[in-house]
Amino acid sequence: MKTALVTGAGRGIGRAxxxxxxxxxxxxxxxxxxxxxxxxxxxxxxxxxxxLAAIPALIMRIGKLxxxxxxxxxxxxxxxxxxxxxxxxxxxxxxxxxxxxxIRAASKGMAERGSGRIVNVAxxxxxxxHTDLWYxxxxxxxxxxxxxxxxxxxxxxxxxxxxxxxxxxxxLLKNAQPERITQLMRAVxxxxxxxxxxVAEAIRWLALDAPAILNGAVIDVTxxxxxx
Length: 228
What we know:
By secondary structure, the chain is α/β, with parallel strands linked by helices. The chain has helices at 12-23, 55-62, 85-113, 133-153, 171-174, 178-185, 196-209; strands spanning 3-7, 27-32, 42-46, 67-70, 116-121, 158-165, 218-221. The chain has a 7-stranded parallel β-sheet with strand order 3-2-1-4-5-6-7, with helices on both faces.
């Protein structure tokens, strides 16, 4: 049985991705800072991703991993002149440094077996102006390290790809600045907010069914709110 780890799986896209992987027959570990109720059939791990030093031991405790989904992310929803050092540091830690450390730790076992799939959750924010500047910076960073790790790990049989969602019905969107939501919804083709399950299906495909040649790709799940 294949094994997966999904971060930020307490709700939203992460929870939906975990459910999709369980339905596909995987043993799924779900990680979050806290859980209201973990998705059925998953194995919950309560963990604070700001604790970078504990990540290698976490991965060793889980054991064999075939799939890593780096979904966890936070957004301060603040204009740049209201950012505190603490808010900026925490966002960089959770959105950028933690997924890099998770990939570094998880890819060691994948490389030994010559196979593995890593899916990172970026955002349309990586490609356009954003009212929360540091959030946009971190998501652009996710795109960058996805391509860097794909180049580095590809020869070892590991695929590293990403999805870049547009407006999705999650707590993160509800907490975004109103002007940001208006900006996005003005452009989407269907004039509706996307569902976490729709992004989860793209994640599941990359994790299980995408052809081996697909590496370093960023799949836009934006409903047309940004075209590139």
